[in-house]
Specification:
CATH topology: Aminopeptidase
Number of helices: 6
CATH superfamily: Gcn5-related N-acetyltransferase (GNAT)
Order of helices and strands: EHHHEEEHEHEEH
Oligomer: single chain
CATH class: Alpha Beta
Radius of gyration: 20 Å
Strand content: 25-35%
Number of domains: 1
Length: about 180
């Protein structure tokens, strides 16, 4: 049996994506920010649009023998003030595929994609504090608990993307602030 493969989803994957997402919502409704009824009401054409990769969003899927077995999305904030942050969302692995590293491979693909976006500095996510398998996965992938307080049983986590140090120049505003001499009173 060939190893599972991860790739960005496309609008053509919408039927398989919808089926797997609905299975996830049915199994763990608290882990998703929607309901089964709301998701069923989304037209397939609109679902296909969700899968269209943009500079601000990409959805990954893991396939095994041509079947979609896991999904995860990465959404980048479009607002200039917070454009250095992205959110990992909608992570779900079909029960028969669990325990084989599929989720780790999927999360690592999302992180690798985020590393290729120069403006991004961190990836955030929210996870139910009683979801021990997910917590273990995210901690194992390098996420840490964020300083933000938990809300409604959810924990905030983040992954700081590796970035090379930026050399400062004499024209750099921050350099000028750091060298500013303030006379003592």
């Amino acid at each position: 049996m060939p190893a599972p493969t991860v790739r960005p989803l496309t609008p053509d994957d919408a039927p398989a994506y919808r089926m797997l997402r609905l299975a996830g919502i049915a199994e763990s409704p608290g882990a998703f920010c929607t309901t089964q009824a709301a998701e069923i009401a989304v037209p397939l054409a609109q679902m296909a649009q969700r899968l269209r990769s943009t500079p601000h969003q990409i959805m990954f899927g893991t396939f095994e023998d041509g079947r979609l077995i896991a999904i995860a999305g990465l959404r980048r904030e479009p607002i200039a003030v917070v454009h250095d942050k992205a959110s990992l969302w909608g992570v779900y692995v079909a029960p028969p595929a669990r325990g084989r590293g599929v989720a780790r491979q999927l999360v690592q693909a999302a992180i690798a994609h985020a590393c290729g976006v120069p403006e991004l500095a961190r990836v955030r996510l929210a996870v139910a504090q009683d979801n021990h398998a997910a917590l273990s996965l995210y901690l194992g992938c390098g996420f840490v608990l964020a300083g933000e307080a938990a809300s409604a049983g959810m924990l905030q986590m983040q992954y700081m993307l590796p970035r090379p140090a930026i050399a400062t120049t004499k024209n750099d505003v921050f350099m000028k602030i750091n060298t500013l001499q303030i006379p003592a009173k």
